[in-house]
């Protein structure tokens, strides 16, 4: 049994009190022979331990260590697992799976004693109110859903380097619009402006042309304009050196762990709307920032007041509505109401949506498409014309967008099997037009009922289940005028009453 330093300290204490070795050993719960050994030596067990320099078993890699060492000298980044697999292939039957841990320990020892110098990271001393860092982080791993549907998104995460105050806003991509929205949201919360803004080399702030030096990129003009508007010094890290933005990088993991813990307390990860999720996120951030209040106050005292107007979180694109009732916005296609055909409209492109204006009057809003050459066609915008021209439906370029749900796709396929092509197209377009004029969910329920009964979904059957709304004029009572009420409008003094 190994004797601990704690017992020997107790032994020494009791011996100083009594001067009797036997009594001191008893009170220290120690064998008298062991007690005499430590009293004679005057040392703790940790100071008497003999360094273990010999091997208790044969080194299984001693025969081929020269080859391994030569490979490590050429490529020190080789891992123990890779080298072990190489040895097993080169010398089959010599090594077994359980020996990989031995090789990994041997490699760590070699790297520490004979390996190349490692990169050194230098802790930085931050001053209050100077440095704000911004970076994007993915939230997919947390499994957040909106109304049961997956909600893949990023967070635009901002932190102050001195106090670790942080703010984050959900976004779809690492775009300039997302950066502007997230950065301005942080400024609004602070009510102050930091001296410097640091980013990594995301395309939101930088591009590959016009770098200021080796290992750096130049800033985008839109980003420089935003920094100039708030009178902030823009700064960026070197390419492939994320540790230089270390405060916000390390804050990503802390924030996501905090959000995950709150989701576990909540009991589920589903939210009724994006607004509900945003409010949940804000509460988590506010609680975290409350613990940093003292250092945040130092930051606020050192920063300038936010006394300039905020920049619009969108940019405008003009587009003429084609005869197909579509517009092109940032190389993507969107449908609009056919009444706008031929008009030049203005599209305001936000980070998450596109709003269409005609003569400064908003006509519609739709989710923004990411990437290029994608399209979003709303059947309600074109169904009126398709009903009048059913022959254009079968080979319509955006044919697949004319099926809002799977049950509508089933209805069309069932009609194609039971009727001729022309009749199937005409019947389905009438059903789809009825969904646009009434309620899509009501028509969907009717189609589901017909499918359950094994019936072909004809137009008349859908109309029986979902009747067209009747427009009735309201019945109004005749207007009765009481002339005596006008007497209250007369100034009696003016007429000498």
What would your notes on this structure say?
- The protein has helices at 5-18, 21-27, 32-41, 45-48, 65-74, 80-90, 100-114, 176-190, 221-230, 246-266, 274-290, 293-302, 379-388, 406-418, 421-437, 440-452, 459-465, and strands spanning 131-138, 145-146, 149-150, 154-160, 166-171, 192-193, 196-199, 206-207, 218-219, 233-236, 270-271, 304-305, 315-320, 326-329, 332-335, 344-349, 353-358, 361-367, 375-376.
- By secondary structure, the chain is of the alpha+beta class.
- It has five domains: 5-48; 65-114, no CATH class; 131-305, Ribonuclease H-like superfamily/Ribonuclease H (Nucleotidyltransferase, domain 5), CATH 3.30.420.10; 315-376, no CATH class; 379-465, no CATH class.
- A five-stranded mixed sheet has the order 5-4-1-7-10.
- Helix 13 (379-388) packs across helix 15 and helix 14 (406-418) packs antiparallel against helix 15 (421-437).
């Amino acid at each position: 049994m190994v004797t601990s330093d704690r017992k020997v300290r107790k032994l020494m204490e009791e011996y100083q009190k009594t001067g009797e070795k036997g009594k001191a050993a008893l009170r220290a719960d120690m064998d008298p022979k062991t007690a005499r050994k430590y009293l004679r030596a005057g040392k703790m067990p940790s100071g008497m331990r003999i360094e273990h320099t010999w091997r208790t078993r044969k080194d299984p890699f001693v025969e081929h260590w020269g080859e391994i060492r030569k490979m490590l000298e050429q490529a020190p980044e080789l891992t123990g697992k890779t080298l072990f697999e190489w040895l097993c292939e080169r010398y089959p039957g010599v090594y077994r799976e359980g020996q990989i841990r031995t090789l990994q320990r041997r490699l760590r020892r070699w790297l520490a004693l004979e390996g190349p110098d490692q990169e050194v990271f230098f802790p930085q001393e931050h001053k209050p109110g100077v440095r704000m860092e911004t970076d994007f982080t993915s939230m997919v791993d947390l499994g957040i859903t909106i109304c049961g549907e997956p909600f893949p998104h990023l967070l635009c995460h901002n932190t102050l380097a001195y106090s670790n105050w942080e703010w984050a806003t959900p976004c779809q991509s690492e775009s300039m619009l997302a950066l502007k929205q997230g950065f301005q949201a942080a400024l609004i919360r602070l009510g102050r402006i930091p001296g410097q803004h640091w980013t990594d080399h995301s395309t939101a702030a930088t591009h590959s042309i016009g770098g200021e030096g080796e290992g750096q990129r130049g800033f985008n003009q839109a980003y420089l304009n935003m920094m100039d508007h708030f009178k902030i010094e823009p700064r960026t890290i070197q390419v492939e050196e994320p540790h230089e933005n270390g405060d916000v990088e390390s804050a990503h993991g802390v924030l996501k762990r905090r959000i995950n813990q709150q989701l576990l307390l909540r009991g589920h990860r589903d939210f009724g709307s994006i607004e509900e999720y945003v409010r949940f996120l804000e509460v988590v951030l506010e609680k975290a920032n409350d613990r940093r209040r003292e250092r945040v106050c130092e930051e606020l005292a050192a920063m300038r007041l936010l006394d300039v107007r905020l920049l619009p979180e969108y940019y405008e694109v003009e587009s003429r509505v084609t005869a197909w009732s579509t517009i092109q916005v940032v190389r993507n296609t969107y449908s609009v109401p056919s009444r706008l055909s031929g008009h030049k409209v203005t599209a305001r492109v936000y980070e998450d949506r596109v709003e269409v204006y005609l003569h400064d009057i908003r006509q519609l809003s739709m989710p923004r498409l990411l990437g290029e050459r994608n399209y979003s066609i709303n059947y309600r915008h074109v169904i009126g014309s398709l009903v009048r021209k059913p022959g254009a439906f079968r080979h319509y370029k955006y044919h697949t967008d004319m099926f809002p749900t799977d049950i509508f796709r089933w209805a069309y396929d069932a009609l194609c099997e039971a009727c001729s092509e022309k009749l199937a197209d005409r019947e389905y377009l009438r059903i789809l037009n009825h969904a646009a004029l009434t309620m899509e969910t009501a028509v969907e329920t009717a189609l589901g009922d017909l499918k359950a009964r094994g019936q072909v979904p004809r137009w008349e059957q859908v109309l029986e289940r979902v009747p067209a709304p009747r427009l009735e004029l309201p019945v109004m009572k005749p207007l009765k005028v009481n002339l005596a009420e006008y007497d209250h409008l007369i100034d009696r003094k003016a007429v000498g009453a």
